[in-house]
Amino acid sequence: MGMLCLLLSVSGAAWAQEAGKISGILSDSLTGKPIEYATVALLRSGNTQALQSALTDANGRFSFTGVAPGNYQLAISFLGYQKKFISQVAVSAAKPETTVGSIRLVPSTTQLKEVTVEGLRPTITQEADRMVVSIEGTALAAGRTAYDVLATSPGVFIDQEGNIQLNGRAGVTIMLDGKLTYLSARDLRSLLEGMSAENIRNIEIITNPSSKYDAEGSSGILNINLKKNTLQGINGSAYAGANYNGKQYGFSTGGNINYRTGPWNSFLNLDMARRVGGRDATFNRAFRDGESTTYFDQVATGNFEVQGPPAVRVGTDYSFDERHSVGVMGYFNTNKLHADFLTETYIGPAPNQPTQFIDADNFNQNRFTNFTSNLHYMGKYDTLGTTLTADLDFVKIRNRGDANFYNYYYDLTTGLPPMQDFLYTDTPNEFDIFAAKVDFTRPLGSGRKLEMGAKASRVVSDNDSRFYFNNDNALLLDTTRTNHFVYDENIYAGYLNLNSKLGEQLSVQTGLRAEYTKSLGESLTTKDVNDRDYLNLFPSLFVQQKVSDNYQINYNYSRRIQRPNYGQLNPFFAYRDPYTYWQGNPNLRPQYTHAIGITQVFKKTYNLVLNYQLNRDVIAELPEIIPETSTTIYYVGNVPKSRNLSLTAIVPVTIMKNWESSNTMLLSYSEFSAVVNKQQMINDQVFYMLQTNHTIMLPKKIKLELNGTYQGPGAYALYVIDPRWWVNVGVKKSFMDEKLELSVNANDIFETQHLIISALVGEGNVSDWDQYFRQRNVGFTLRYKFSKGEKPEERKRSTLEELNRTGN
């Protein structure tokens, strides 16, 4: 109530202030399509000094607010198009809002041996607070999944369990169209692997979010924006593709249809796929117990297949008038997983002298269901940009899984028949998520803007993990490895942001977010209860300094939190083989992060980013060695402290008119401090990454795309990661006036994307593994597009921050 009163009083006081607005739309003079990410500068008539600059959005729209009365001109530029100037743009007290209508840019083309060479759209764009990686229309996206594309984005690293890191740091918040996915690493991977990259427009990488965003996510936000309805009337596309990874065949098919007429704007997307994959791995361990050491050598092969009915995403918006609209969106996805994990393990007292052989075959299946719904309102209350948005969200997630484990133990010293140990697990879990939020924006004149909002969310989860001995086809409950865990969490939040220009060269944004968390976790099996409530404040500060037309510096600071995901708090055991388990931790504490960044932008093109992070109570997977039983338990714990210092350079280069490259170079230092077996451990590493993307327009309008990535040695928690590199290639050709597209791609063509990791587990102990997840594959996609009409206005929905934490 206090925030609502403050909102009303501030907006009421500011309502009388007036300022001008200039807006317009950019489009291609040949195709009529909107031009995204073009630069528009606002200048005083007869002056070369830019007062403001803006980038066009996905619909080609741009606008300038807080414009004082006077005469202006617009300078417009974009790679591959001729520059354009619009003069005699006037703002007055009688007419504070001016629109220049639709502006058409003429492509800069040259003829070379009867082949038209056009400027290519850049794949990476650096905005004031985020990096935008364009996916739409790229050959590398064809035939690939959203997971594949995300894994190759600048600074993104995905570990062996599907956990996502950004610039070498864990704790990434994943959003889909500005809304959280509400999934664990495993379920998020399942969702993204079932989504065609053909439906992605771009990926936004936000390394240091403002107070407007939820404080969840210690290393930043990755927001995946899907393609939206953009044409009047009926339009859409249909696609089909296939892929092969050397052992398994997969396919994908689907399409989308959009319909806009009068006040209605509706869409329907369908995607169906048979996803296949697996891993080939070796695990080597040594367990020291007093004066003796046990050696453990394991070879593993895993395979999976996921298939289900089409995933459906449907929605509609209704505009009451130019200022008020409501919309509803629903997403439903269900699929069934069949997987196996087959291991052969040798155990002995000396290297290459095994005394025992274990053949362990695991077979599991899981039915995954996700239903997400959103009700959205947007209101525009004046021509200055005063807006109010509200969202209601409901998410229901269900997992119904079971597994059989068949273990055969051979004594190599006696040659006797093997001992058998058969096990069975039943692991249903479910999540219900409710959220409501409201956001208010009010320009205050003189380059100032107020943003404020509030949010409430509730998450209820139920995890019932049952473990059985399965001998003689009779199930006997194992109470030591069975657990029923329920969790209830409520978060109430409010934020206030103030943007202000301090002259022509300096602008500041300061914000404060408050979040109150109340949670209750209870093990119905052990009767253990963990009841928590805490209030946190999360300040943020952004300073933008324009030193000259060709040099700009941005400074930023924020405090953030990483809460444990709901599965990590569940203390049940997850079984992999007789000597390997994973276990949750109900006493896990939230992780807190202080982040400082400095971004330098040269000639509005080249970026040099310096970041520093100090993390407390780092949430990480940790190995525990039990020498007496030669067992390794991977558990989730809190590492007391970690630090990270990184330097990132983003350098786009036009090699030729028909050859553009985008290059990212990262250099960082990470340090983790932890206690293992009562010993203080320091794990630090200088990490570097080089990524280069090339887009080449060949004759016959064939587009060639190359992606090469090299990652140096890395450190995370108690793990040391070996260097690795990979190369992807894609080719795209259009037919029938670009209505039909054929794309062919090959990923990790040299099979070099191995994940080789060593764990620091104390003196005399060893835990190393080498895993390859079959990233090497070839595929093709054929897509047919149909469209006509005008570009409508696109609406963005809200953000939602709870989904990343559901599950284990």
Secondary-structure blueprint of this entry?
Elements: H1 2-14, E1 20-28, E2 39-44, E3 50-55, E4 61-67, E5 70-77, E6 84-91, E7 97-105, E8 110-112, E9 115-117, E10 124-126, E11 131-134, H2 146-151, E12 156-158, E13 164-166, E14 172-176, E15 179-180, H3 185-193, E16 200-206, E17 220-226, E18 233-244, E19 249-261, E20 264-289, E21 292-307, E22 311-319, E23 324-348, E24 356-380, E25 387-411, E26 419-426, E27 429-445, E28 448-471, E29 474-477, E30 483-501, E31 506-523, E32 529-548, E33 551-562, E34 573-577, E35 580-583, E36 591-602, E37 606-626, E38 631-656, E39 659-676, E40 679-698, E41 702-711, E42 714-716, E43 719-721, E44 724-735, E45 740-747, E46 755-759, E47 766-772, E48 777-786
- What would you say the CATH architecture of the largest domain is? Beta Barrel
Q: How much helical structure, as a percent, in the residues? A: under 10%
What's the number of extended β-strand segments? 48
End-to-end Cα distance: 37 Å
Instruction: Output the structural class.
Output: mainly beta
Radius of gyration: 28 Å
How many individual helices? 3
Query: pLDDT below 50 for ≥5 consecutive residues: which ranges?
Result: 1-18, 109-122, 790-801
